[in-house]
Amino acid sequence: MKYLNRYIMMLIILAGTVSCNEDQLFEGELYKKVFALISTDDYNIFTVVHDLDLPESVGYVAASVGGSNPTETDINVTLIHDIELFDNYNKDNFDMDAAKFAHLLSTDKYDIDSYSFTIPAGTKSGRMKIRIRPDGLSPDSVYFISLKVDGFSAYEVNPDKSDILYRVMIKNQYATQESTTNYSLRGSLNNVQIPGIKPMHPISRNKVRIMAGTIPFQSDIATINQSAILLEIDDDNKVSISSYKDMKVEQVDDDPNFPNIFKIEKDDYGKQFKTFLLNYKYTVGSTVNQMKEELRLEFKEDKY
Question: Quick check: 277 pLDDT over 80?
Answer without folding.
Answer: yes
